[in-house]
Specification:
Helix content: 40-55%
Order of helices and strands: HEHHEHHEHEHEHHEEEEHEEEHEHHHHE
Number of strands: 14
Shape: globular
Structural class: alpha/beta
Length: 463
């Protein structure tokens, strides 16, 4: 199996990966992402929602995180009725393979037989999940391949996990199986593992310690989650969806092209051109903070053409006299540029100081607040499924449950992290209030995400 991975990684960098088209979300969709810890504590689904919030501000959807840390496909199907069905999904995304393929045994004798066993076990465990999904009514389905396990990067500076050599081969076989089942069932399929492996390989040529899979070789940080979001959006055929495209002939005071926007009231006195601009979308804000000092969402732009393909707010002004020009929006100076650059076109979405970008940032931060509250719910459910279910105390939020948790609080590896949140979340009224808070934030997002008419002014700079 190891030979297979070596052959694949040798050719990955030269392959151009094309996204398999899956259906875009439509107004009113309720989308569930069912997965493991990468879904549970991750942000890729939140980044996808933020894209829809800003690109399609009148199309209201709701996305639900149904990830649980350490889950495999067998555990996911066991909680299907309690952690998927209640969300009444119109669209279900399922991802598995990281935990299903196993870990430590790859560095022990008999690793190849172990890998074969884990593959066959995954295929077998998928059967009950497939049946449950087929029994859903009016629900679109897509499988997302696992993200890469990091076998190659030199992580000796932060040796949190020894590489399990050969695990990737099994994950690639699971991916092939996922794609086959998707085709058989007429479900969508999104390949993350191959393009992300290619990014890792390319980065490791320049820096042997480079990885988008995290220091523990498993969990992508914000950069990796942005890359995941990009490939899922690409699979929805959203490449080329512009924020706006403006092309104005300054000599003729004429709009040549106004795509996804409306241009009006063009005025030109020779040294100053101004016009009103009402877009149908907001630019996508890529400004989330670093988490635990890890690579940021913004750093993903070094590895994916997101700005070019999915975040282009293009402004072209032809017919200006040669020279330097000052670009202002609603009276705020944005940048200085040249007539040549304006004639070729500039991407306003690259300028974080525009009023429309600042408006989008407010949406982004509200969405982050929503994610933080959602995270508390996932921690509560994680404790239920990962610990309390095994004690026969699933969703029995009683004094007996507290006593059980306290009895192992100092000895169980997981409890110190999840117990503080549980002391609040065990109360139904707290959980209901958190749900209400999330809904309030969502309502607010969809009230402030509508583009506002702006006045763009381009003034010649006197030298």
């Amino acid at each position: 199996m190891r030979k297979t991975f070596l052959i694949i990684t040798c050719i990955l960098a030269s392959i151009s990966f094309s996204a398999q088209t899956i259906e875009r979300f439509k107004d009113g969709d309720r989308i569930v992402f069912l997965g493991n810890s990468i879904t549970d504590g991750g942000r890729y689904h939140s980044y996808i929602w933020l894209y829809y919030m800003t690109r399609f501000p009148n199309l209201r959807i709701q996305i639900f995180n149904s990830g649980i840390s350490a889950d495999n496909v067998l555990k996911m199907q066991k909680r299907f009725e309690t952690d998927v069905i209640p969300y009444k999904p119109t669209y279900l995304f399922l991802t598995f393979g990281m935990n299903d393929s196993g870990y430590e045994e790859y560095n022990k004798p008999g690793a190849e037989a172990f890998g074969e066993h884990k593959y066959e076990e995954t295929v077998r465990n998928f059967g009950p999940m497939e049946t449950k999904i087929k029994n859903l009514n009016n629900t679109k389905v897509a499988i997302i391949s696992p993200t890469p396990y990091e076998e190659i990067a030199d992580l000796t500076q932060s040796p949190l996990e020894k590489a399990h050599k050969g695990k990737t081969d099994v994950m690639l076989r699971i991916t092939d199986f996922q794609q086959k089942k998707s085709e058989e069932n007429n479900w969508g399929f999104v390949d993350l593992i191959h393009p992300m492996l290619a990014i890792n390989q390319k980065g490791q040529k320049a820096n042997p310690a480079f990885t988008i899979s995290g220091e523990d070789r498993v969990h992508p940080y914000n950069m990796g989650h942005m890359i995941m979001a990009y490939y899922i959006l690409k699979a929805q055929n959203l490449s080329g969806e512009k924020v706006a495209y403006i092309n104005i002939d300054a000599k003729k005071n004429k709009t040549l092209i106004a795509e996804n926007c409306k241009i009006s009231n063009i005025r030109n006195n020779g040294n100053k051109l101004s016009f009103n601009y009402l877009a149908n979308s907001l630019p996508y804000p890529i400004d989330t903070v670093h988490i635990w000092g890890s690579a940021s969402q913004y750093e993903a732009l070094e590895h994916i053409p997101f700005m070019e393909e999915m975040n282009d707010e293009r402004l072209i002004i032809q017919g200006l006299s040669d020279g330097k020009y000052q670009l202002a929006i609603d009276g705020e100076i944005i940048t200085e540029t040249s007539s040549q650059e304006l004639s070729k076109g500039i991407n306003l979405a690259e300028h974080t100081n525009t009023p429309q970008y600042q408006q989008a940032m407010a949406v982004m931060y509200l969405n982050e607040e929503r994610w933080e509250i959602e995270r508390r719910i996932r921690q509560y459910k994680g404790l239920q499924y990962r610990y309390l279910e095994g004690k026969g105390l699933l969703f029995e939020d009683s004094r007996k449950t507290l006593d059980q948790l306290q009895s192992e609080l100092d000895t169980h590896y997981m409890l110190p992290h999840l117990y503080p949140n549980y002391t609040k979340a065990r109360f139904e009224e707290i959980r209901k209030t958190w749900d209400m808070m999330q809904q309030l934030l969502i309502d607010r997002i969809y009230s402030i995400n509508k583009p506002i008419e702006r006045t763009i002014t381009i003034s010649k700079v006197e030298l």
